[in-house]
Amino acid sequence: MPKQLHGNRRLCTLIVPLGLILVFVAACSSDNYAPITGATDPNLPATEFQYPPLTDEVLANGPAPGFSFLPINVLDPSGSLDAGNRCDSMADCRWVERRKGKNLKIDHLVEVKIERDQLPQDTMVTVIAPVGCWAVIDCYPHPLQFSGMVEIKWKVNELNLPDDFDYSTLVPWYINDNGEFVPVEHEWRGNYHELIVRTNHFSRYIIGQRVD
Fold first, then answer.
1. How far is 187 from 196, CA to CA, in rounded Å?
2. Residue 108 region, left (φ>0) first, then alpha (ψ -120 to 50), else beta?
3. pLDDT digit string (tens) for 4-40?
4. Which of 20, 39, 78, 127 is the most exposed place for a label (fewest CB within 10 A)?
5. Separation CA 15–CA 155 (nearest Å)
6. What's the pLDDT score for residue 115?
7. Is the pLDDT of residue 75 over 90?
8. Regarding the domain delimited by 3-210, which CATH topology (the fold level of the hierarchy) does it fall under?
């Protein structure tokens, strides 16, 4: 069944085949509706764009030699491992006015903070965690360029990592137009509570873990 997320005049619907991320269908309803892919003017045709599929092979190979994708443990409301739905997709999509800005959040994973005047125009923005058991997000519209550096805040302290986890092994990455993962400059806040990345455009972002 598609997973639907509600809130603040929006409805996001994702359709995700098991084991292979091929396509998503996301519709955002708002008082100021616009397509979420491509053109932000609802009178212009949308330009379809998809990030490369997250196949089992891609996930097994990691973003680069010596690195793996970071798996995360999703808890159910009782605090137990949610084995049945731990890989569900999650999304937040919002109409963001250039002069106001807005935050988009996926609970217990990430927050994208857009300040006022960072967008070139009013835009429907979508953040998707395509596979909920991995630290991966896809941001749309791509390749939207910002007027400033938008902050992506990974909530590492909410990922239910082991007590003895070595946080120094974590490195954030983004995917470039050639489909290659590139490491991103980052900083930590708190006692490894939040991993902060800043970017001037939307892409796919992940947390990788050094394994060699």
1. 5
2. left
3. 343 343 444 443 333 333 334 444 433 332 333 333 3
4. 78
5. 25
6. 96
7. no
8. Chondroitinase Ac; Chain A, domain 3 (2.60.220)
Rounded Cα distance, 53 and 205, in Å: 14
Range in 46-50, 77-81, 195-199, 201-205 the model is least confident about: 77-81
Q: Which residue has the tokens 């109409």?
A: 95
- Sorted by sequence, the CB contacts under 8 Å of residue 163 that are 6+ apart come out as none
For the chain, the domains span 3-210
| Helix residue ranges, H only, the chain | 56-61
Question: What pLDDT does 2 receive?
Answer: 33
* Residue 96 identity: V
pLDDT (0 to 100) of residue 32? 30
For 151, residues 6+ apart whose C-beta sits below 8 A from its C-beta are 112, 113, 196, 197, 198
| Positive or negative: CA dihedral 59, 180, 111, 101 | negative
Q: pTM score, two decimals?
A: 0.77
Average pLDDT taken over every residue of the chain: 77
Unique residue bearing structure tokens 């509706």 = 33
CB atoms within 10 A of CB 194: 17
Is residue 149 within 8 Å of residue 180, measured between CB atoms? no
Residue labelled with tokens 């006692």: 191
User: In the numeric block, which tokens belong to residue 5?
Assistant: 């997320």
Tokens 């996926």, residue located: 106
- Pairwise CA distance, residues 211 & 110, whole Å: 23
Residue written as tokens 């599929």?
A: 53
Residue 66 exposure: Cα atoms within 13 Å on the Cβ side: 6
